[in-house]
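Dear V.,

Thank you for sending over the compound details. I've combined the ligand you provided, zinc ion, with the protein sequence from our construct and run the structure prediction for the complex. I'm sharing the raw inputs here so there's no ambiguity about protonation or stereochemistry in the SMILES, which I know was a concern on your side last time.
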Amino acid sequence: MTSEGSSRDEGPPRVDRSAEEWKACLSPEAFQVTRKSGTERPFSGPLWDEKREGTYHCVCCGLPLFSSRDKYDSGTGWPSFSDVLERTHVNEREDRSLFMRRTEVTCTACEAHLGHVFPDGPPPTGFRYCINSVALEFHPAGEEEGSENPTASRERRGPDESSA
Ligand SMILES: [Zn+2]
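Below is the predicted structure of the protein with zinc ion bound, written out as structure tokens.
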């Protein structure tokens, strides 16, 4: 299971943007978390208490990452999932920062930092994907998902009328 770069057969297409480009299309909080590996304050994000059915997408590139059917209330104040939607959409790698040994979870397509996965989740997987709200974009079930165009979410996100 060591991935030295060349094992992206079924993975989603890569989304590559500069820090400046990400900054322009993300909220400051989302930028800090996804591009700087930050962590939002617990109970501060919009999605930890979201209970509707739907899909959670990467806030950066729109890739679907988690489903409401795997979401559960972990009591931590962060959205928590017992599994991922698509194995190839989420990367896991060891994170030894802060003198802890944790497993970082990132988006395969754009390498956004999402959160961490811990081995103390509920059955059947036993995993707890502890994900920052601001790294996710919730799409309620039933909503049309016609476009996979990342610029669509960019337009909704901010006033972009400055320079034409
Ligand atoms: Zn992404």
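A first observation: Residues 28-36 form the longest helix (9 residues).

Warm regards,
I. M.
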